[in-house]
What we know:
heterodimer, A: 315 residues, ABC transporter involved in vitamin B12 uptake, BtuC, two-stranded antiparallel ribbon, 2 strands, 2% strand, globular, B: 371 residues, alpha/beta, Rossmann fold, seven-stranded mixed β-sheet, six-stranded parallel β-sheet, 17 strands, 35% helix, disordered N terminus
Amino acid sequence: MSEVWTTDFLTAVLAAAIPAGTAILFACLGELLAERAGVLNLGVEGMMLMGALGGFAFCYWTDSAWIGAIGALAAGAAMATIHAVLTVSLRANQVVSGLALTLFGTGLSSYLGRNLVGKPAPDRFSDLAIPVLHEIPGLGRILFDQDALVYISFVLVPLLWLWVYRTRQGLELRAVGERPEAADAMGLSVTGLRYAYVIVGGALAGLGGAAISLGTNPGWTEGMTAGRGWIAVALVIFAGWNPARAALGAYLFGGVEAAQFRLQSIGIGVSPFFLNMLPYLFTILVLVLATGEAARRRIGAPAALGRPYLREERG
Amino acid sequence: MSELRITRRTVLGGFGAAAVTAILPRGGRVLAQEGEPLKIAFVYVGPIGDLGWTWAHDQGRLAIEEAFPNVETSYLESVPENPSDAERVIRDFAQKGNKIIFTTSFGYMDPTINVAKDFPDTVFIHISGYKTAENVGTGFGKIEEPRYVAGQIAGKMAATGQLGYVAAFPIPEVIRGINAFTLGVRSTNPEAVVKVVWTNTWFDPQKERQAAEALLDGGAEVIAQHQDTPGPMQAAQDRGKYGVGYNADMSSYAPEAVLTCPIWNWAAFYIPTVQAVIDGTWESSQYWGGWQDGVVDLSPIGPMVPEDVKAAAEAEIELFKKGEKTIFTIFSGPLKDQNGEERVAAGVEMTDQEILNMDWFVEGVEGEIPS
């Protein structure tokens, strides 16, 4: 066991946990925004796949990973727009619409991506050591020797936290998700805000896909997100709809993934099944602890989550 | 969520309703029945765009369409291996009048056998399993032969004698691949060790990459894989190390890293099988083809491999292609297990069954087989 508690080992695990968690983190932050506005989006997996494809495709055509990232945002946003139209304007069942979009995104991305399979990536987000900072022992390798999308996520997490909890817009967002009637009475456009946050959320899911197709695994292969969209949905609950805790959850997941292989390679037999189960176990624990209305409030579930808003029902 | 999609492709539409009979110029063998095209279906475990296992099978399907004018093939991707889903899909294909159904993953074994009982006139070919019936044959290839030669190249490229192997599941198919690779490595680098980590997934790009990074952190110079995505090759490239891919030529994803890849050429098995069904000569059998039969191969050896190493590998490849070397010469004694105990005595060859059921690592492999 002594090999585990060395700085080298822990540094290696943490440095690997962050890129592994970043794709999930973007998707989780996006889902968090949509749910804060009261819209459950189970289409995250499909949006991530479309983002992964869109990101790689635009990068392939333009030789620029940055244009690729914009393509990923656009692809995710386009998918989310469908979800917004269905659930906000047409008041369709959010669960059904989300599941349909996951199936749709999976199928559409493999259809559209057919000719991109096996194509080399002309550009990608490579690790970018930040001058001076990356030389800090331990911490430097963990935090300051990552790719550009990881740095963007570092900035995004505190920004979103401030947005949600410390700004007027954040208050409006929470109002729409908690008491849409009250928000409407305040003169806020419930429909408009829900559209905006669902679409921004989808764009972030798309960027999460690009964190794979332009970051850790440059290129396009069908189904390359391998279920990470679902983990993101589960992590939103684990995070209690709080961006900072979303980051914690995503890195925890990445850390479990990174640690299990390193433990194996130094001959420590922790069952991989057990480790694979951990993130889900945490989520289930949170869900169990969160049963009952009072506890539900405490962990922060938006009260109007999953409920379409219809002005006539106000009251 | 996995995706289900049916795509049906009819080649040469002119052969449709016009009821054309295709006849070989010599011998007068009837290639296909008159009228209705012969319908052939494929059940895939992954997406065909994975550039991996399923992609390789789909190349076989396309080769069938190319070779036979009056066939119609269809397929279903990402079919779960659980009994209920798999059986429903296979039964559906049988009911739609498919005369040959290829089920291309180990987990489809029992569902295939179950459905086959109800459709005695349909031929079922199950890939990688061991159960057969009157109308169910099995097919697999000795991918261990190219893995062995890939190991010989990898052994030469690993200066420090440390190699890593990203492995999917601890099943005999994967274990004997690791063993064949390791025996190849140690034939050119006798002191080398191959460290194994298990991912417990066939297909997860990020996770496979993580597993490779853990091995690279541990000092591995070459990463081999029994996985379906190029994630491990990309990890090797980013660290300036080498890799041995699998299933298909993965060099486009990591051109500076990929030394070579053991690959499948299912057409070499599929086309004769379809021909035999058309001729009415097909009988249930357990096909296990090797390099000699063309069903397995190595992708082109990368430019980073020195000329002498490449020449030695090419000489070895010739021996396998001629059948002078086979999987049995790879697994012939003396063989020791990873604890140094002799498992196969000098001069003794392992039998088919011993190779197919291998559940121990040869000397030189580092890692545990979870029970």
